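Assemble and predict.
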Amino acid sequence: NAGVTQTPKFRVLKTGQSMTLLCAQDMNHEYMYWYRQDPGMGLRLIHYSVGEGTTAKGEVPDGYNVSRLKKQNFLLGLESAAPSQTSVYFCASSPEPQGAAYQPQHFGDGTRLSIL
Amino acid sequence: QKEVEQDPGPLSVPEGAIVSLNCTYSNSAFQYFMWYRQYSRKGPELLMYTYSSGNKEDGRFTAQVDKSSKYISLFIRDSQPSDSATYLCAISSASKIIFGSGTRLSIRP
């Protein structure tokens, strides 16, 4: 059981380039999330999805787009990468939460992205 | 003022000690409280989840919530070197979740 798998694990981009980060989960979870983690700032929610075909903005959505065409996959796109987007990106999933709106349970191991 | 404050550490204790990790929060609208453990170069993993004041125990881990003081704690008994990690608190309401910045913990053998 792989859980949550993120690809790629590392990537270096030049300013202005675009790329897509892929997240796949095999637990049949409804909810999926994209976070970024920066030193001293904790995890911040970028976008999330409450089911196939749905997406919504989180705390820091600017500069990112997402798609959830299949229940098991959640894609995060950077249209025109900027140095401020250098970060570690984590995908997470959870079944429909009981009570709390956001309760990410299973995280991938992250994508380390550097924008030069 | 941050909505959740967490001492970044690092915190270093000898093996077998009781560890206390803490967070404070500012908004009483947050009603759900989580603790995550994150090993180096790995994703966080959910350790404990609670939504009420009081204590919740799971093995060597106890989560404590004091809503009147807006203070949450995670206690680790009989700490082991394998507990060395960064511990993140998180608070959630019906519409948002806020993570603490994490406390780095090191258990010395």
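Chain A touches chain B through 22 residues (CB under 8 Å).
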